[in-house]
Design a protein that fits this description.
The chain has one domain (3-87). Helix content is 92%, strand content 0%. It has helices at residues 3-42, 47-87. Helix 1 (3-42) runs antiparallel to helix 2 (47-87). It is elongated, with a radius of gyration of 19 Å.
């Protein structure tokens, strides 16, 4: 395995990690921002108000986005296995 192939596998792995995690992080960010604006407008400073809805929405988005995430991971796995087969 050359350095170029190793760097390419690392690059693909990092890119796949970003593609898989970005939608969930963005959903959590948007929900947190909406709740923060709601708290600022109503002056309700309850700690559980920020965590419970965010956890529920992130969990629901994980259920919805699981097929997309598995497809991205599957593509990475096919890429890596093709490289391994090509080396042998």
């Amino acid at each position: 395995m050359t350095e170029e192939i190793a760097l390419d596998v690392g690059y693909q792995a990092i890119l796949t990690m970003l593609i898989v995690s970005a939608p969930i992080m963005l959903v959590g960010l948007v929900v947190g921002l909406v709740i923060a604006i709601f708290q600022a407008l109503t002056q309700i400073q309850e700690a559980t108000l920020t965590f419970v809805p965010r956890i529920l929405v992130v969990f629901a988005s994980l259920l919805v986005l699981t097929p997309f995430m598995l497809q991205a991971l599957e593509e990475l796995m096919f890429y890596v296995t093709d490289l391994v087969i090509g080396l042998g």
